[in-house]
C-alpha cells in the first residue's frame, strides 16, 4: 500500500510531499521518525503529530485509513486549523471571477471584502477595491451587505448597493469587479456523501497560535504558513474572531430584502467553482455525476455572461463538440482558467470516464497538483506512476500511449475520454505527433487543452491578431475547435471563439488560484469509484497502489521472521479459514475458504505460477491454524511441485500421481473420511460452511490475516470451526501407512493415522459425542487436476483416475457441510469435468509478471493480486519494511523503478523456514498442553 501525504514541520514553510509504502494496517508510529527526517534530515521524532487540529495517536492511527489517506496534510509538533466542530451558520462562496472558488465560513459579526490582504475576505480581482464592501451576519441569521465606497461599485442582483446596509435575499448574487459571490446558509448544505469510500481529509487551514501560548512541546518558531497560503478556504470568524455585529446606524434600518432568487436550470447544470470545492471536500452527490453518456459530459464552463441583470448565465463549451480547446492570454490568467477547467472535469467526471494527461515539459512546479487526482493514475497499463509529462522523454511516452487509444466502432461514442493539458514547447518530433493527435484524437476521445501565451484581446490587439499569435505559438492550437480568448485590459474577461471563428460576447472568466486547486485535488486524492474490482470503474479503496512485480508471502502474512512463538500466537487466535493469497492494490488479498462452498480453482497457462500459488495457499493456511485445527491433503496430478509444502506439520498426506494402487486407496480413504465426518456430525452441519451462505468470500483484509472488513463473511457461527469430534482411525490402513506413497509428518507413538489432525495429537482422545471435541478443517489441495482426472494414455495413474475423480466430486458435494474444502489447480479449461464447472471462485493467473492474478468471486468482484512467493530463497532483508520517500513530482511520469526481490541461490526457502517453525510450534504447544498444571 502506498499513500502520498504532505508533512509540515518547524522551519519548513512549504511542507514536504512524501510517499509512504507499508503493509496495510501499519501504524503511524512505524514511520513517524522517517517523516521527521524527511522534513528535516537528522531531525528527531516529533512529540506530536497532527492532522489539521486533531492530534493523532501514532500507535492507533493506521496508514491508509482515514485520516491517514492520500492527500492528507500532517503537521509535526503543531496543530493546523481545522474547520472546527461547531456548526457554521453560513458560508460565503466566490462563485465566479478571477479568484473564484473560495468558501469562507461566516460565524457572525461583520467582515470586509476587498483586494487588500487586510480585508477579512481577500479577493484577488483587479477590479475590486482594497476594501470594497462588508457583510454582517446578524444574530437572527440575516445577512446585510454595504458598500465601503468602492471604485467600481457593489451590485446585488443587478441593483447597486450603497453604503447603507441592504439585506441579502436567499440565493442573492453579489457582484463586485468581475467576481460574483453568494451566501450558502446551513439549511442549503449539500446532501451527505453518497459516493466516496473513504472520507476526504477535512479542510486544513492554519490555526493562529496565541502569542505567549505555544503548543506543548512546540519549538519556538512561527507556525507553518503554507496551508493558509495555499488553501484558499478560511473562516473569517476564526481568523479575526469576528467583529461584533454592527447594527445599521439608528434610524437607518437595513433595506428590506428583495424576493429570493431561484437559479435557472441552466445555471444549476453547471456548478460554480465554490460549489465544486464543496462537492470535493464533502463528497457531495454531484461529485463525479457525469458518465460518458450524460447530457453535459465533458462540457466545461469558462465563465459567466456579464449580463446587466441578475443571475450567472454560464458560458460553456463541450469538448466532444469542439474536439479540442485552446486558451490564449497572459500567462497568469490562462493558467488560472485552465486550473478551473481541469478542476471541473475532475470534479464532475469519475476516473472511469475521464483520464487526465499532462504534457508540460519543465513545468512540474505549476502542474504537479494534477498528480493528486485519481484521474492521472495510469489505468490502461501505461508504464509510469502518473500520466505526467514533465520532460521530453515523459512527454514522448505520453504521446505514444495516447496514440494507441483506438477509435470506437462507427456510430459509437468513446466510453472513456482523455483530456490532455498541453503547456509549453515540445520537442520537434513531439510537436508533430501532437498536431496529429489534435486532428485525429477527438474521434478516439482524446481532447487537447492547449495553452498559448498572448497579450489579451483588446482594441490594440484585436481578436484576429491575438488568435494568429496563439496559433503561431503552438502548432496544435490551429486544430482547436474552440478558443477561450482572455480579453480586456486586465484579462479577466473571456471571449469564446467557436468553430465558425466568430468571437462571442465578453464574459467574466472563471479562474482559481494554485492554493485552491491544490486543496481541491487533495480532497479527491483518496476517493475511488464504488464498484467491484480494480481497473477503470473498479472500486479500489483509498490508498490504492499499483501491484508490485513480486511479493513475498511471509511479508504479507507479517511473518517476515517466522518464529514458533509467532505461529503459536496466530494459531491461538485463528478460528475461521482465511487464506492470504498475496498483495493487492490496497494490501493483503484474502479469500475466505471457510465460507466458500464450492471449490476454489487456480487457473492459468503453463509456467504461470499455479503450483507456487497452491504452495502459498498451503503456507498461508498453515500460518493460521496449527495441526490440531487443520489437516492438509496434497495431491499431485503430475510432477512434484507441492513437495515443498509437504514438510508442513499440518500436511496429513501427500500423494504423488505415480501408483494407481495408492491413488485408489487414497480416493477410498477420502470417501471414508467424508462418511466419518457425516457420522460424527450426526446431521448437524459443520458450522462455518453453512453460515457463510453460498459462494465464496473475498476481500482485502487490513492486517495480513484477513481480519479486515470482510465481504460476505459468515455470521452467526455458534462455535469455532472444528469444534466437533476428532477421529480418524477407521480409514487408516494397518501399519500406519496411509493410502499413498508417503505420510509426511512423523507421528507420536501409538497414534492412529488419519486426516483428523496430524502429528500434534499426543494421546488420542477417545471418540466423543458430536460437538464435544475438535474436528479439524480438512483442505484438499490438488495440483495439475487435468493430468490427475484425465491422464494421458500410458500414464501410471490412468487406471485410478475414475475413482479419484469420483472421490473429489464427493468432496465437492458433501465437503462444504463437513468442514472439508477443495482447492484445484489446472491449466486453461479443457474438458468439462464437474469439478471445474462447479468452481465458483477462481484465481486466474495472468502469466506475466510471474504470479500476477485476478481473484474472481461469485459476487462478481474481481480483485487484482500479486500472489505470494513462498518456495523462493529470499534474503531476510527483503521485507516490506515501511519506507518514506520524498516525492519528486517531476519524475512521476517515468517508468517505475523495478526492483524485483532478490532471490539468493542458497539458504533455506521460505516454505522450509515456515515448516520448521510450525513443526517446533506444534511440538512445544503439545508439550505445554501435556504438562500438568
Ligand atoms: N509469484 C512468483 N514469483 C516469482 N516466481 C514465481 C512465482 N510463481 C512462480 N514462480 C516461478 O515460476 C516458475 C513456474 O512456476 P510454477 O511451477 O508455480 O508454475 P505452473 O503454472 O505450476 O507451471 P507448470 O506449467 O509447470 O505446471 C517456477 O520456477 C517458480 O519458481
Automatic annotation (TrEMBL):
Q: Which residues cross the membrane?
A: none
Q: Is rRNA processing a UniProt keyword of this protein?
A: no
Q: Where is the region Disordered? A: 191-265, 693-727, 748-769
What ranges does the record list as Low complexity composition bias? 252-263
Bias (Pro residues): 211-225
Q: Where does ATP bind?
A: 604-611
Question: Domain FHA spans what residues?
Answer: 111-161
UniProt keyword list: ATP-binding, Nucleotide-binding, Phosphoprotein
Every FtsK domain range: 586-864
Pfam families listed in its UniProt record: FHA, FtsK_SpoIIIE
- Coiled-coil segments, which residues? none
Molecular-function GO terms, alphabetical = ATP binding; DNA binding
Q: Where is the composition biased (Basic and acidic residues)?
A: 702-720
Matching PROSITE patterns: FHA_DOMAIN (PS50006), FTSK (PS50901)
Domain of life, source organism? Bacteria
Q: Keyword Ubl conjugation: yes or no?
A: no
Name of the molecule in the record: FHA domain-containing protein
